[in-house]
Design brief:
Elements lengths: L1 H19 L1 H4 L2 H13 L2 H12 L5 H22 L11 H6 L2 H10 L7 H7 L3 H12 L5 H15 L6 H6 L4 H14 L8
Helix pairs in contact: 1-3, 1-4, 1-7, 4-5, 8-9
Length: 197
């Protein structure tokens, strides 16, 4: 999870650099390439997954809501800084386009000091000691055996669950309505105006 987030941040910094240099290069294609790279990045689902996995159970819902909060905050900051009096002027708009690289840079610098998520270490890597060490680093010293037991139960449940490929998921009648709902919701997000903002 952590490595994927770090790679994603590198992608965002490259995209921001490309968009920021588009005026100097006099190339609108660079803006298109940079925006495409931003769209390909996996910021939102990775944030949800990593933050949800490193949070204690009692704070997990709150931690997962931070993504929506920062998404809204980012839109508000973008609208405010996009005013002509700030970065929306003809000379400063490349800085506005490149500003998406700043949060990625902050995360790229800070994330190496955080451990890998405990469920990932235990469920996918089978590293129980690494899991305990990560839990102590994230949540402090104390009795965390109940959380480790929960992760072990989830791992046991996952062993008995068949993981479907994308094609099998599409063909499975039991998941058809859920799949329709996800596709409809995801498609309508594109119509809400967030891309224009």
């Amino acid at each position: 999870r952590k490595k994927c987030l770090l790679c994603n941040n590198v992608l965002m910094i490259v995209a921001a650099s490309i968009m920021g240099c588009s005026k100097i290069a006099q190339s609108f294609e660079m803006i298109l390439i940079g925006r495409f790279m931003c769209g390909v990045s996996l910021c939102v689902p990775l944030h949800h997954q990593y933050v949800g996995e490193i949070s204690p159970k009692k704070l997990r819902g709150f931690a997962n809501s931070t993504s929506s909060f920062f998404w809204s905050l980012g839109k508000a900051i973008g609208q405010i800084s996009g005013q002509r009096e700030l970065l929306g002027s003809q000379s400063l708009w490349p800085m506005l386009m490149a500003s998406c690289g700043f949060p990625a840079l902050v995360q790229l610098v800070a994330l190496p000091f955080f451990p890998e998520s405990p469920p990932y270490l235990l469920m996918h890597k089978g590293d129980q000691e690494g899991c305990k060490k990560a839990i102590r680093q994230l949540w402090g010293e104390g009795q965390h055996q109940a959380e480790i037991d929960d992760i072990m139960k989830e791992k046991a449940t996952m062993k008995n669950t068949k993981i479907l490929s994308v094609l099998e998921l599409v063909k499975e009648p039991a998941f058809r309505w859920q799949l329709y709902m996800i596709v409809i919701l995801t498609a309508t997000i594109q119509l809400c105006g967030i891309n224009a903002v």
